Amino acid sequence: MHTDDTPTSGDQGGTTAVVPELVGMPASEAHDRALDAGVLAVGRNAVHTGAGRGHVADQEPAAGEELARGTEVGIWIAGGAARTPTGPDPDDGPEGGGGGGGVRPEPSPVGPAGGGTN
């Protein structure tokens, strides 16, 4: 019988989960393994193969970290858009502070509706 209060990766009723190693496995398998561990693997680069044939090239947070069950684990799929170091993810909670620091594109000039003169 488990008597201490420390949740383990096998503790399906606990409130925490241990992040599994996802790097190197096919995306579809990584999603399944993450769900089995109690977290949600979410693709962070724009190109993600629908069939899950791409392999995970990177993940955040790293394997072995303890998180609240249901927390997202970002995965980057090989062959997709490159991972860019932009600071905290704005979806990661209060520490993320909404992200920022990026360069906002200038709006393109738009003329009056109809484009003609009277």
Structure description:
This protein is mainly beta. Helices cover 9% and strands 18% of the residues. It has a domain at 1-81: Trypsin Inhibitor V, Chain A. The chain is elongated. Mean pLDDT is 73; it is low at 1-11 and 96-104.
| Secondary-structure element order, N to C | EHEEEE
Distance N to C terminus: 86 Å
Helix and strand composition category: mainly beta
Overall mean pLDDT stands at 73
Question: How do you describe this structure in short?
Answer:
With 118 residues, this protein is mainly beta. The protein is 9% helix and 18% strand. It has a domain of 81 residues: Trypsin Inhibitor V, Chain A (2-Layer Sandwich), CATH 3.30.10.20.
Topology (SSEs and partners):
Layout: E1 16-18, H1 27-37, E2 40-43, E3 56-60, E4 66-68, E5 72-77
Parallel strand pairs: 2-5
Antiparallel strand pairs: 1-4, 3-5
What keyword list fits this structure?
118 residues; two-stranded antiparallel sheet; 1 helix; Trypsin Inhibitor V, Chain A; three-stranded mixed β-sheet; mainly beta; disordered N terminus; elongated; single chain; 5 strands
